[in-house]
Amino acid sequence: MYSLSDQLCGNLNHSKFIRRTLVHWLRRNAEIPLKNGCTLKDFVHDQSWENYCLKMLKEGEWGDHLTLIAAAEVFKASIVIISSIPGDNYVIEIVPTFTEPERTIMLSHFAEYHYGSVHPNPNK
After folding, report:
1. Alpha-carbon distance 11 to 3, whole Å?
2. What is the rounded CA–CA span in Å between residue 63 and residue 44?
3. Do 111 and 85 form a contact (C-beta atoms < 8 A)?
4. Helices (H) and strands (E) in the chain, counts
């Protein structure tokens, strides 16, 4: 959530608001169909959807791919992730399905550990 706050607001101060906003969207959209025919809640196997949402509301809980899908929709953003996971040239892109993207969010992803905010180096 800190990485999203940095990308969207230029600082880390809005992470709580972003977290609440994304979880609210996830709760309302658990049944939306994705391009692959599944729904969002189909990707939570080890707990109920509500328990997943309650977990994601907790301060310090790391965001995941589902929260990034929500962020793409809520903030009308294409999210480009430079990942440590091989495949697709180490780049994952999440594009909103129900809105047109108005901005790009750049993140790094160290597999299974952490997302980080990425800014271009203006000195290069």
Report:
1. 9
2. 14
3. yes
4. 4, 4
Task: Compute, in degrees rounded to 10, the torsion defined by CA atoms 23, 25, 28, 34.
Answer: -110
Task: Look up the pTM and report it.
Answer: 0.90
pLDDT at 96: 93
| Euclidean distance between CA atoms 99 and 101, whole angstroms | 6
Out of 3.40.50.720, 3.90.70.80, 3.40.190.10, 3.40.50.300, the CATH code matching 2-117 is: 3.90.70.80
Low-confidence ranges of the chain (pLDDT < 50): none
Complete DSSP assignment for 109-121? EETTTEEEE----
Q: One-letter amino acid identity for 81?
A: I
Structure tokens given for 37 = 């025919």
Q: Are 2 and 9 in contact (CB under 8 A)?
A: no
- Domain spans, the chain: 2-117
Length reported for the chain: 124
Q: Which of 35, 34, 8 is nearest to 104 (CA)?
A: 8
Question: Residue holding tokens 């025919």?
Answer: 37
